[in-house]
Amino acid sequence: MDQRPEFGEKFLVGVDQIDREHRRLFDIAARTYDILGASDAVGRAMLQDAVAELIDYTATHFANEEELMAAAEYPGLAIHREQHQHLLARVRDMEMRVEIEDATVAVDLTHFLYRWLVDHIESSDRRFGDYVRSRRPS
Ligand SMILES: [Fe+2]
To answer: For the whole model, what pTM was predicted?
Structure first.
């Protein structure tokens, strides 16, 4: 991955709270990207921090997003929740690999997180944004 993950306008889904929280997830992805250049000992401590924050913040963000979906009676909620659960399971895997000092976990986590964010936001979260907009009285 050559480019530092960065949130941009193209990722906006049109729901302010969700967009704000996505920006923060990109910040975490940028942190794991920066860790790739750090030495092993320093990198491992930084990576532990970043993964802990990632687990904590994704749990908060997913709960908020699912709450907004439930309030809007969004029909895609169940499938969407499954996608969130899947991401959390993958991140917990990565956390375990950090614990056992797996040498390639930083690269894997950075790639995986960035890809997941882009794909998930551009398809699933955007679909919810479109749904919210379609129900707004014009
Ligand atoms: Fe989502």
So the answer is: 0.92
